Amino acid sequence: MAQATREMGAGVKNGEAPGSGEGGDPAVADLVQGFSAEQLAGLLADMLLYRRFEEKAEEAYAIGRIGGFCHLHIGQEGLAAGGIKPLRADDLALTAYRDHTMAIAKGMAPRAAMAELYGRVDGCSGGRGGSMHLFDTTVGFYGGHGIVGGQIPLGAGLAWAIRYRGGDQICVCFMGDAAVNQGVFLETLNMSAIWQLPVIYVVENNGYGMGTAFSRVSVTEMEARSGAYGIPAHTVDGQDVLETYRFFEGLAEEVRGGAGPQFVNAVTYRFRGHSMSDPVSGTYRSKEEVETHVRQEDPITILRDRMMKAGLLTQEELEAIDAEARAVCEDAAEFSDASALPDPSTLYDHVYAEINPNGRLFLDGRGTPGG
Amino acid sequence: MATRVHMEALSPTMEEGQVVKWLKGEGDAVAQGDILAEIETDKATMELVARGEGVLRKVLVGEGAAAPVGDVIAIIAAEGEDIAALVAGLGGGGAAADGKAGTDAGADEEAAKAAAAATPGTETPSPAAETPATAGATKLEAVTSAAAQATSPEEMATPSPAQAAPTRVKASPVARRLARDAGLDVATLQGSGPGGRVIKRDVEAAAHAAELAATAPAPPVTPWPSPPDTEFEDTPLSQMRKTVARRLTESLGPVPHFFLTVDVDMTRALAARKRVNELLAARAAKASINDLVIKAAAVALTHHPECNAWWQGDSIRRFHRVHVGVAVAVPDGLITPVIRDAHAKGLGQIGTEIRELAGRARDKKLQPHEYTGSTFSISNLGMFGIEEFTAVINPPEAGIIAVGAVEERPVAVGGQVVVQARMRVTMSCDHRVIDGAQGARFLATLKSFLEEPAAILM
Amino acid sequence: MGGGPLVAELTYRDALNAAMCQEMDRDDSVFLMGEEVAEYDGAYKVSRGMLARYGDRRVVDSPISELGFAGLCVGAAMSGLRPICEFMTFNFSFLALDQVINSASKMLYMTNGQAPIPIVFRGPSGAALQLSAQHSQACETYYVHAPGVKLVTPATPADAKGLLAAAIRDDDPVAVMEGELLYNLRGEVPDEEYVIPLGVADLKRSGDDVSIITHGKMVHLALQAARALERDGIEADVLDLRSIRPLDVDAILETVARTNRVVYVEEGWPFAGVGAQIVSLIQDEAFDDLDAPVLRVTQADVPMPYAKNLEQLAKPGVKAVVEACRKVLYMPDTIT
User: Fold this and answer.
1) In chain C, which residues have their Cβ closer than 8 Å to the Cβ of A144?
2) Domain residues for C227?
3) C287, C288, C330 ranked by CB distance to B192: nearest
4) Cis preceding linkage at A123, omega within 30
5) Which range, of B86-95, C62-71, C270-279, averages the lowest pLDDT?
């Protein structure tokens, strides 16, 4: 990630940002699309936090603090910030296994997220879920799901429950581009349309399902996938956090107002491998391709440059925001390192919500309740 | 590929067998299915058939010697095939088995070890027998033997290659527990389950017997008097005599017997038999009074199924069909060949079958299915002039009738003393299965059938 | 009936209906979703009249999308509703197993207790008559293999009402496997609110000679076998587990201790079947009570054939149960 940081550093040398004085310059307004300075700084800080968090996770994985599968969101932070931040606190969101920054965006504390990656007792799920299953119902984040497409009907179910109870929340269900080839995607879109559920299905379209380019497994464009079910399709540039934010802000209100289910093709790019065991480039995409995207489409760089151009960000401010993000992630890692491993006596906790007074639930001869 | 020839269980209750005769000698070619040897079981002399082919290379148990079921008694292998390792490998276990220590009820680990060590002459001592692996195997078998008879849970828990050890006592878990509780050693019990498995009912029967023995006054312990001057001969127990002894003891011990006797007017029975034989003459068949008794008893049992029953420890099995076991004296004991469905057979057929079976019984040629599965038994000593006697029940059957001689005796009939052909029948009943009145009703029916044979046809 | 509780004679089908109505009346978070459950009144008429009674908010026809609607129901449960997810038959639920196994059974654990899934999966399981391989299979094993799901298998109308009600009230995923051939079975069913706690087996017949342990539809087969054995003077216990998970281990150990001999009867295949688990449990915890190996009577280890005679051969039958009982009693099989 040194590269992105260097570029950010380089950007600052471009001179003073336009419109820094009056703020009434229409060019500046166009640049920042009507966001207030605080909002812009907030989005920048959010994305920097996500970036530093994932880098910290990458480092922790490399030294064995994190095990198993670990899928980083680096390059796609614009969707976490732009797709989730416009939601209300009581709206619901869920995604697949590339979920760290999504969880934090919805409100999960970085400490709880990192400790979960570490498999520690202070993790959001006490170390039971790990990287792929971050979960915090108190902030409306419903996972964290490991089977491609598995979260899609769950999202419909959350939306069903909202409608059943007569609530005005919405549910945003993220997925990777490969998930749209799962049968359950089609089944769920159909049901969502039948019952006009308050749900937005968002494809984080980074172009590859693991190592397979979407164009190799689909003869139709992504936008065409929802038409058969009568669900409106939208495309948004996920690398432009401001556009993304505005888009979701509007769509969320439409759905809240009864517009029914929506389908969003959010175009983005993954700067890292599919998971920690997948090289950044080589087999299915070239080094040049990755470098070009990193250079031109880093959502953080794009926002930084605009803010600086608009005179809404100085190098010092940027460094302060970044230092804060790094500090938070460093703290999260230290916190996680210090956090205890789960108590072995809890092995059988939460397999069942209700331990029936009669009969035995665990048949391994060990997990007998109370014994 | 060498084939081990094992002492096989050639009767359902056989635990060891005696080699009567080797029909193949060392060096003889053997084809699969060839008869290798005649083996005396507890019931009969049976043929041991080769399960492999090649040459009978080594005979390990000589004629006249006995071996427990499962022991290797010979080796078949290709000519020139090296069987030294195989023979040596049998050293530990085989020696222990030959020495009987491994199978003896009281054997413990020490004894087994001692036996193994004390039989160097049984096999040619071979360096292989001293290898750690072989020694280990020997030791494990000994441990297994101990574990099988262990009374403490710790010993029970000893890991062992249980199935592999020929000396393992097979017992169901509950039988082991009950035996432990009752202070009985399962190894001393005769198992009635598959493969001789000691099961719950066996332990219960033994416990009951032990209880009876404990409550009975202890007989004075007197050593067998040795006849001072006369010549005498000690006869080793044959397999059959061992079994007879064990089974009869088992019967009178645990089975609560009671006895009922009727005196039967045989006038019409004799007449009927005479007429039947006239008719059978055309078929060169003939029926005896005993055949008529078998037929009458079998039909009577169909009217009294409560007497046509087995005691099964925790259940009573009443049979719908009648298979009559008929006690037959053979030179060194007795055996009860079975007339199946005797209630449904004619006198001629019963007569023919019983003579054929008895003949083969005396020649020890009965097959196991011919002397097992009876539901009721009959013993007739009338031909020896015995007027009246009691017979010992053949478990798990619940009843047996002892039939005496038909003889002319004066009896009072309607105030007049007349001479009639009379016969006494005494029934032994297992009181756990048959109550007095039930036995009496059966005997009454039997008596009525014999006194009016036409009633059998009703 | 006398002074006892009020009872009505109901079919098994109507007893299930009564349980759903009983629970929907007392808890608005309970809803029924499945194929043909609303306008059609249920493929087996189990939900007859419920659309009229509760409306299409709570009685919902789904498209034929087992994975989709099962997942939707799990999602609804994840946010606290109590869906009754009906599979027209459990054969079709194999399409939905990802949501059953990967979502429903594991969500609570993965989230450290944050997301209970109080859902009921119900429908018929097991063979009916000449429906061939894909429509005739007992599905219990698939549902109890993964920790996190509970399973009940009612055999009588009263059990159907009580167990389904308990399943709906339970805070965990509970599969309720019904018997297609039982839907017309009539029996007395308590009229008032009726709930049978999960994990309580029911001794359907008492005898000290041999224990026939079983569940679901096979309870009736076991009772027939017990009657046949009675003619030979053998008294069999027939223990209906009712609930496979939680499992009434105490009841199993009690009958084993009493009879020392066990035959397990199940409609499914033997390999890793429910009976395999019961046998394992018995040898683990009742070893010293056994007088004979525990035998199982199961469906033949083949897919269900269509032809009538082959189907008969493949299904567990009374004769096989009787023979197994005689075998564990060490009774000769030469005499019949």
Assistant:
1) 110
2) 202-328
3) C330
4) no
5) B86-95
ipTM associated with this complex? 0.94
Residue A368 confidence (pLDDT): 55
Place of tokens 């469906």: C299
| CATH for A272 | 3.40.50.970
Q: Which of B68, B59, B72, B62 is nearest to B19 (CA)?
A: B62
- Which DSSP string do the residues of B210-233 spell out, in sequence order? HHHHHHSPPPP--PPPPPSSS---
Active site residue C215: no
Residue B108 banded pLDDT, cuts 50, 70, 90: very low
Domain count, chain C: 2
Backbone dihedral region for residue A107 (phi beyond 0: left; psi -120 to 50: alpha; all else: beta): left
Eight-class DSSP state of B69: T
Q: Cβ contacts of residue C78 below 8 Å, gap of 6+?
A: A142, A154, A157, A158, A161, C107, C115, C117
Residue C161 identity (one-letter amino acid): K
Mark yes or no for CB contact C335/B312 under 8 Å: no
Residues on chain C touching A156 (C-beta within 8 angstroms): 68, 71-72, 75
CA quadruple A327, A333, A339, A340: dihedral, nearest 10: -170
Task: Give the burial class of B318: count Cβ atoms within 10 A of its Cβ; 0-12 exposed, 13-18 middle, 19 or more buried.
Answer: middle
Give A136's DSSP letter.
B
CA distance B40 to B194: 21
Q: Which residues of C touch A122 (CB under 8 A)?
A: none
Which one of C81, C172, C248 has the shortest CB-CB distance to A354? C172
B135-171: buried (b, 16+ CB within 10 Å) or exposed (e) per residue?
eebbebbbbbbbbbbbeeeeebeeebeeeebbbbbbb
CA distance C95 to chain B (A): 44
For chain C, list residues whose CB is within 8 angstroms of any CB belonging to chain B. Answer: 208-209, 232-234, 260, 287-292, 329-332, 334-335
Q: Residue B173: name the closest of B188, B144, B190, B153 by CA.
A: B153
- The CATH architecture to which B169-211 belongs is Irregular (4.10)
What does the pLDDT read at residue C172? Answer: 98
**Is the distance from CB of C151 to CB of C285 less than 8 angstroms?**
no
Chain A touching partners, 3 or more CB pairs below 8 A: C
- Distance of alpha carbon A300 from alpha carbon A51, whole angstroms: 9
Tell me the residue length of chain B: 458
Q: Which residues contact C150 (CB under 8 A, 6 or more apart)?
A: A352, A356, A361, C167, C170, C172, C173, C174, C175, C198, C243, C245, C246
Contact check, Cβ <8 Å, C233/B375: no
Average the pLDDT over B415-441 and give the result. Answer: 90
Q: What type of residue is B406?
A: V
What CATH number is attached to the domain comprising C176? 3.40.50.970
Q: Is C215 helix (H, G, I), strand (E, B) or coil?
A: coil
Burial class, B109, CB count within 10 angstroms (exposed 0-12 / middle 13-18 / buried 19+): middle
Strand partners, A209: A212
In a domain, A162, yes or no: yes
Sign of CA dihedral C91, C95, C96, C99: positive
Nearest CB among C208, C288, C334 relative to B173 is that of C288
* Helix, strand, coil tally for chain C in percent (to 5): 40, 20, 45
Crossing angle for the helix pair A299-309 and A77-84, to the nearest 10 degrees: 70
CATH 3.30.70.250, domain B256-457, yes or no: no
What was the pLDDT predicted at B217? 55
Interface B:C, ≥3 CB–CB pairs < 8 Å = yes
Percent helix, strand, coil in chain A, to 5, is 50, 10, 40
Instruction: Tell me the pLDDT tens digit for each residue of A324-358.
Output: 999 999 999 999 999 999 999 999 999 999 999 99
**Subunits touching B (CB < 8 Å, at least 3 pairs)?**
C
| Buried-state track B226-235, b at ≥16 Cβ within 10 A, e below 16 | eeeeeeeeee
Break chain B into its structural domains and give their ranges. 3-148, 169-211, 256-457
